[in-house]
Design a protein that fits this description.
This protein has twelve helices and 23 strands. With 435 residues, the protein is of the alpha+beta class. The protein is globular and about 60 Å long.
Length: 435
């Protein structure tokens, strides 16, 4: 099935997992790009972990980006990876498929996935891409260099990337799960700080893997029928900037090695969790916007003026006032909640309309800053601080995602995430990216 794997842009990976006896509660830590305006979350994680083996020692929480000790942090991250490889904390499993199961803390959502390595030669994050692995949202290229500085030295790929397949008939992941969950899991643990529970199985049965590959191949052929010459198999649901950094690293590596060594070089392949868009546990949650160092009245006045200049007839709604047409931009500030109405939006996606205004505002107010916040409660709490103004985005329909991207468009950067912040992927598995 090697030819099928090449066509699909994947490889069946050899995965690194923590060895027996490792405290998995301390080992698994949430994606580094979460809680970026809440350092207390990461302080709590550090207190829980202490000096125990943990993925916390192998990642750079983005809440700390921009601090003076970046080089020392990266040194420590690389040293931890090398130490865990040398002393046996990380154990390498033979090539196979890790089948994952994740339940959120409340027990209301369960999602299933499989861990595969994707071929970075088949991934392109640029808008208008025709590759079979595509970004779903705009890529902020300035976010790539910090990740690249780590990956360029790291011996291990430690992923939080989640890919989506458009599988309404549940042909790929669900049959793998139905078979796998009859065996003993390779890990099974509660997750720290409200992450819920996760478990997984290691499947090496050739027949089961072949059936999964053929099901993926059928999805690719169906996509080719819908979009001849430009099919799409995988859409990046979460972690696009980390995957973009992996792509940049591979391009650098490729230039430094012989051409005949590039085919199976480990840096060419990035470990990802593959999820079915139509899994009942997949929620496409909006990512909200939080402005810092702004005057609320001046910021709202600027946005109204910006939209008026673009012919969109913007105004603030009175408390309790409702509208039936146009778009409403919900905001939150220390003075309370409110709504800005755009009567004649130029784009059908609310996130596009809002982001255009915020980009202009950031250009006009040099001291203003922006962050991207997961969860309504977190946004509303943070926006009460002086100088802060938050905007809440609406839900995105999952059944429109693939068709939007395949038509050559992407959603605005940070438009959605899979689940709330504490439902994001926790680091558990790794993969070697050095020969």
């Amino acid at each position: 099935m090697e030819e099928v794997q090449r066509r699909l842009g994947i490889r069946i990976p050899g995965v690194l997992l923590p060895s027996a006896g490792t405290d998995l509660y301390k080992w698994a830590v949430i994606a580094c790009d979460q809680f970026t305006s809440q350092p207390e979350y990461w302080e709590d994680a550090a207190r829980i972990v202490g000096d125990a083996p943990s993925t916390l020692h192998m990642i750079y929480p983005e809440v700390y980006l921009g601090e003076k000790d970046e080089s020392q942090r990266i040194d420590a991250i690389v040293a931890a990876m090398e130490r865990y490889l040398q002393n046996g904390v990380l154990r390498e499993y033979p090539p196979g498929v890790i089948v994952t199961w994740r339940r959120n803390a409340s027990g209301t959502l369960v999602r299933k996935g499989v861990m595969l390595s994707v071929d970075l030669e088949c991934y392109d994050y640029e808008e208008g891409s025709a590759s079979i692995i595509r970004a779903t949202e705009g890529t902020i290229k300035e976010r790539i260099p910090p990740r690249l500085r780590i990956r360029s030295r790291a011996p291990v790929d430690l992923p939080h990337v989640m890919m989506l397949v458009d599988d309404a008939c549940h042909t790929v992941i669900e049959p793998m799960y139905a078979r796998a969950n009859k065996a003993e899991p390779v890990y099974d643990t509660e997750l720290m700080l409200g992450g819920g529970h996760v478990r997984a199985w290691h499947v090496t049965d050739p027949g089961a893997i072949e059936r999964m590959l053929l099901a993926l191949d059928a999805l690719l052929k169906a996509s080719e029928a819908r979009s001849p010459g430009a099919p799409m198999l995988f859409a990046v649901g979460d972690g696009n900037h980390s995957l973009a950094a992996a792509k940049a690293h591979w391009e650098n590596v490729k230039r430094s090695i012989a051409k005949d060594a590039a085919g199976e070089h480990p840096a060419r392949f990035a470990l990802c969790e593959i999820l079915n868009l139509y899994d009942e546990g997949i929620r496409m949650e909006p990512i909200h916007r939080l402005l810092f160092d702004v005057d609320t009245d001046k910021a709202l006045s600027f946005l109204i003026g910006f939209y008026h200049d673009k012919g969109m007839k913007a105004r603030l709604l009175k408390p309790g006032e409702t509208v039936s047409a146009g778009q409403a931009l919900e905001y939150s500030a220390g003075s309370g909640p409110g709504m800005m109405h755009i009567a004649d939006p130029r784009n059908s996606v609310v996130a596009d309309t809002l982001q255009a205004g915020l980009d202009a505002l950031l250009g006009a107010f040099p001291k203003a800053r922006i962050d991207y916040i997961h969860g309504r409660d977190a946004l509303e709490a943070l926006s009460k601080a002086p100088g802060c103004l938050g905007f809440l985005l609406p839900q995105i329909r999952k059944d429109t995602l693939f068709s939007t991207v395949m038509k050559g468009g992407v959603l605005p950067r940070k438009a959605f995430s899979i689940g709330e912040a504490d439902e994001k992927r926790y680091y558990m598995e790794g993969k070697r990216i050095r020969p």
